Amino acid sequence: MRTWVDASTFIALDTIGEAALLHDLLGRVALTPEVAAEVFNGRESEALGRARGTWIEIVPVTGGRQRWESLGLGRGEASLFLTPTDDRLVLDEVPARVAAESEGRSYVGLLGLLLAGARKGKIAPDRARQVLRRLAQSGFHLTTELYDEAMEQLGAPR
């Protein structure tokens, strides 16, 4: 079973210098070539560029994307739905999550990864809170309520 990651998750973490967090939380991850084209576009950090081919695997997928693109998914997100249905997806965009739910696919978002990683001891709660703060400051789309709830779950003092 593979874990496939969407571009927005990688880009958000790379923006704050934390792309390697995905390796800490998930080990090896897979990208479709379409997602890889969004992630590795010449603006990625050196660290992320070096990770390509090590813990980041690029795996071709086949099939028609039209159905998914007609639902408002971008080319990269649509390609994630051509992966094996028993694999897990990391998705942060609402249309992709809706599609995953309609297909009965297993998925998690970046916030869910942070919370699960802290709960399982793969990342210290202090680091998870720091990453969450930096994501919010960088413009990562997150409601105040969700941010507050996540910080509380990570043990932030009130």
Defining traits:
single chain; 158 residues; mainly alpha; Rossmann fold; two-stranded parallel ribbon; 5 strands; globular
Give an overview in words.
There is one protein chain. This protein is mainly α and 158 residues long. It has a domain at 3-110: Rossmann fold (3-Layer(aba) Sandwich), CATH 3.40.50. The protein has ten helices and five strands; from the N terminus they run E-H-H-E-H-H-E-H-H-E-H-E-H-H-H. The chain has helices at 7-15, 21-26, 33-39, 46-51, 66-69, 75-80, 94-103, 110-119, 125-137, 144-153, and strands spanning 3-5, 29-31, 56-58, 88-90, 106-108. The strands form two sheets. Strands 1-4-5 form a three-stranded parallel β-sheet. Strand 4, helix 7 and strand 5 (106-108) form a beta-alpha-beta unit. Helix 1 packs parallel to helix 3 (33-39) and helix 8 (110-119) runs antiparallel to helix 9 (125-137).
Which helices and strands occur, and which strands form pairs?
Layout (H helix, E strand, L loop, with lengths): L2 E3 L1 H9 L5 H6 L2 E3 L1 H7 L6 H6 L4 E3 L7 H4 L5 H6 L7 E3 L3 H10 L2 E3 L1 H10 L5 H13 L6 H10 L5
Helix pairs in contact: 1-3, 8-9
Describe the structure concisely for a colleague:
The chain is mainly alpha-helical. The chain has helices at 7-15, 21-26, 33-39, 46-51, 66-69, 75-80, 94-103, 110-119, 125-137, 144-153; strands spanning 3-5, 29-31, 56-58, 88-90, 106-108. It has a domain at 3-110: Rossmann fold (3-Layer(aba) Sandwich).
CATH class of the domain at 3-110: Alpha Beta
Overall average residue pLDDT: 93
Coarse morphology: globular
**Extended strand count:** 5
Strand ordering within the main sheet: 1-4-5
Determine the number of helices (DSSP H or I, runs of at least 4 residues). Answer: 10
Could you tell me the CATH topology label of the domain at 3-110.
Rossmann fold
CA-atom Rg in angstroms: 15 Å
CATH architecture of the domain at 3-110: 3-Layer(aba) Sandwich
Beta fraction: 5-15%
Distance between the termini: 39 Å
- Percent helix range: 40-55%
> Quick one: CATH superfamily of the domain at 3-110?
5'-nuclease
Order of helices and strands: EHHEHHEHHEHEHHH
The largest pleated sheet is described as:
3 strands, parallel
- Helix/strand class: mainly alpha
Low-confidence stretches: none
**Multimeric state of these chains?**
single chain
